[in-house]
Amino acid sequence: MTNEISVEQLIDLSIEENILPDHKFHYRWHELAEWQFDALCRSGLEPGHRLLDIGCGPLRLGLRAIPYLEDGNYFGVEAFPPYIRLGQRVLRECGVDKRSTILQSTMFEFEKFKATFHFAIAQSVFTHMSDDQVRHCVTKLQSVMEPGGRLLFTYIVGRDPSGFLYGGVQPMVRLGVPDASWFDGLASDLGLRFECSEIPHPTQEVGLLIF
Ligand SMILES: C[S@@+](CC[C@H](N)C(=O)[O-])C[C@H]1O[C@@H](n2cnc3c(N)ncnc32)[C@H](O)[C@@H]1O
């Protein structure tokens, strides 16, 4: 068994789950799986840490992170049920048998995991939310992040917010912040620290919030 999946396998599984192959998502699977895993490891993720993957999708990062982390230390929350089903199939296809916990929710109900987290990640997720949702998400994180815990997230500068339907079904908003100081303001309102990350991302900006 291998933890790798080919784009062809991924597309076959997606079609079986009625998910249209997406030129950005499916064809950049490996690049952005590797980016997320590498960025977390460079930020200090270790196997004994608990990781919360916000907007985990069909486990693009999970497939890399679940085998790396100690059993049970990966937690994902996802809005779109077909992605959760696809993620479970991806894990089975690749023979990943370590435990992980996935919650379907759009409301940032992190307390339902009954766990605290050393790291959280939201890769290409705040770009699918309104600014009120981002604020709500970070506020809800406060009670579940370990002291010193880190949220690594990506964002886009300077795009006008607009609405769209994810997978043609799930209503979402595309957030573009005027500049990184938007996150500075959020951090100072909530008593957190914001840093622009030096880790380069292929298409977005990268930020860190430290709890
Ligand atoms: C571009 S995808 C990124 C998926 C994943 N982070 C990755 O990089 O592989 C954005 C994901 O965020 C999810 N999402 C958007 N709003 C959400 C919310 N309020 N709660 C949980 N997930 C959400 C979407 O359903 C989608 O799976």
How would you sum up this structure, described in words?
With 211 residues, the chain is α/β, with parallel strands linked by helices. It has a single domain (7-210), classed as Rossmann fold (3-Layer(aba) Sandwich). The protein contains 6 helices and 9 strands. It has helices spanning 7-16, 29-42, 62-68, 81-93, 131-141, 181-190, and strands at residues 51-54, 74-78, 101-104, 117-122, 145-155, 162-166, 170-174, 193-196, 205-210. The strands form 2 sheets. A 7-stranded mixed beta sheet has the order 3-2-1-4-5-9-8, with helices on both faces. The chain has a two-stranded antiparallel ribbon with strand order 6-7. Strand 2 (74-78), helix 4 and strand 3 (101-104) form a beta-alpha-beta unit. The mean pLDDT is 92. S-adenosylmethionine binds at residues 32, 55-57, 60-61, 77-80, 83, 106, 123-125, 128-129, 133, 166, 170, 172.
- The succession of helices and strands, N to C, reads HHEHEHEEHEEEHEE
Q: What separation lies between the terminal Cα atoms?
A: 38 Å
CATH class group: Alpha Beta
Gyration radius, in Å: 16 Å
Helix content: 25-40%
Which class of secondary structure composition applies to the elements?
alpha/beta
What is the fold named in CATH at topology level? Rossmann fold
User: What do we call the CATH homologous superfamily?
Assistant: Vaccinia Virus protein VP39
Q: Poorly predicted ranges (pLDDT <50, ≥5 residues)? A: none
The gross shape turns out to be: globular
Report the portion of residues in β strands.
15-25%
Mean of residue pLDDT values: 92
Number of strands: 9
Structurally, how many domains make up the residues? 1
Bound molecules: S-adenosylmethionine
Q: Which CATH architecture would you pick?
A: 3-Layer(aba) Sandwich
H/I helix tally: 6
Sheet with most strands: strand arrangement: 3-2-1-4-5-9-8
What kind of sheet is the major sheet? 7 strands, mixed
